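Write out the 3D structure for:
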Amino acid sequence: MTARHLLILFVVFASVQAKSSIVAPETKVIVSNAKVLLPPPPQSAAAMYMIIENHQDEAITTFAAKSAIADNISLHEMTMENGVMKMRAAKGLTIKPHSSLTLSQGGSHWMLEDLNEPLYEGQKIPVTLCFNGGCQSIKVEVVHPMQNQQQSNGHGHHHHH
């Protein structure tokens, strides 16, 4: 690989970083708007949201996430049962070809459980997401819940563990 090729790769990577999206060319999966809501003390769990775009010709399934910040990261789905919103663990979420999945308050989301250290607003957390096509690393920003609630027009839910 020549210095010119390395420079081109760096410029492409830097432009991807500037848009706060991570592109995995081998899987054609783009993750954007990734954020973790700052939990109130002394809670040891936090919700993580993002948009996952599948630019492949086949469906993909997201099924696992890992980070040194939490002992466990689990995927949850929100469902309405008899007029009551319920949260339950999910084994995986499928994203159809050439479509996207939005993990957001009131819907599907990741839960970072048994946090190993307190989170702070503006912190960037390294997280690895795994799909049936492979894994990729992303950086997720910790945001204040009220800031996120204002952005989502006040449609939110709270987690109690």
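Helices lie at 3-18, 145-151.
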